[in-house]
Specification:
This protein folds into four domains: 31-162, Rossmann fold, CATH 3.40.50; 168-240, Helicase, Ruva Protein, domain 3, CATH 1.10.8; 253-342, Up-down Bundle (Zinc Finger, Delta Prime, domain 3); 366-443, DNA polymerase III clamp loader subunits, C-terminal domain (post-AAA+ oligomerization domain-like, Orthogonal Bundle), CATH 1.10.3710. Helices cover 50% and strands 7% of the residues. The protein contains 20 helices and seven strands. The strands form two sheets. A five-stranded parallel beta sheet has the order 2-3-4-1-5, sandwiched between helices. A two-stranded parallel ribbon has the order 6-7. β3 (109-114), α7 and β4 (136-142) form a beta-alpha-beta unit. α14 (253-267) runs parallel beside α16 (288-303) and α16 (288-303) runs parallel beside α18. The longest helix is centred in the first third of the chain and has 18 residues, at 88-105. It is elongated, with a radius of gyration of 32 Å. The protein starts with a helix and ends in a 6-residue tail after the last helix. The mean pLDDT is 85.
Length: 445
Amino acid sequence: MDLFEQSSLRHEQAPLAVRMRPESLDEYVGQEHILGPGKLLRRAIAEDILRSIILYGPPGSGKTTLGYVISRTTKGVFINVSATTTGAAELKRLAEEARDRRAYHGERTILFVDEIQRLNKGQQDVLLPAVEKGDLILIGATTENPYFEVNAALLSRSQIYQLKPLEERHLLALAKRALKDPRGLGDVQCVVTDDALGHLVRIANGDARVLLNNLEFAVLTTVPNADGVRIVDLAVAEEAAQAQRVRYDKSGDQHYDVISAFIKSMRGSDPDAALYWFARMLYAGEDPRFIVRRLLVHAAEDVGMADPTALLVAQAAATALEWVGLPEARIPMAEAVIYIATAPKSNSVVSAIDAAQEAVEKSGAEPVPVHLRDASYPGAAKLGHGLGYKYPHDYPHHYVIQEYLPANLKGLKLYEPSDQGREKAIKERLAYFAQLKARNMTKEP
């Protein structure tokens, strides 16, 4: 029995989240950006002119629930399958039946595929002809970014709708409805205090399923008082839902989105935000080695020569993680996060190495100038290697004018220091050398 059948039968032993599935769009809570009055998707469902869609959003945001509402609202044969239990043979059979149903009876078929991201390429390809011809109207539900997980051909034939985590006002409305509705807990004599309800809403973190499961658990495990009433206070609610859920998938969207926010917070010199995203990754179980790798890259990429010490601090955090491990290593890692976030910023190193690689690709493989060649081995002097080389330490300021690039790249400028942090002094020093060189061009070797 699938979730749609459970919802239809309203079995008394079905989870509260299943029993409380809405029967119509008017009962559906949340996702106003795609289902509010006048929105295209709402009109398509209400007027029964739906085309293939993919519903993309976090757990508990209402993807399966919306599929159920569509099954109750639209005409035609509605079929529900889960990508975790179906195969190519079954999908092919369903596509053929949909073709025959349309050809011989004029009926359309709506196929709801839960966790569509779990279908492999071959299984997705089976659906493609039926979707393209209109034999099947596909509704795919996924928690993963469909642009990463669903075939481009199938995406191009579907409209993608992103569902958002439910807001606290949505969750509160769902909880109050469940407490009053006979389908839910309306027949149970219970009182849930405002503090308890607020805690359950916050701890659900936008997930309606988590909220309703915790609410049901809190109510049904509470012993009735002398009057037969179950009192759910804050202490009971905290015991029923002990740890806040953090939406995070170490191989999916959340992984990339959170690390992106982490890096951008450090780049934007916001230590508080950077620490928050760092703590969130640790809390969710992200691989700490992944985090220190990003610290190392960011220290060189976005701080760079403005404060070269940032790279050393990041390396120290990586070493601490290797030698100490978590949870203690979180402290030197946090120190690195703060140091990098508050350091002056320069991406001149990135520009320099990119320009250098481009110069290598575009220029010919010119020989190394004779005065720069290795003269340390026997016979090198007879070949003229090192002839004319000037040792900088023998000159004032440990600098002497001579050419270090191949002849065809003379005058090439790759590194452009910024005026941030320590790099400002580097910029001034290089400018001084450039002035010396400009005044003594005729004296170069």
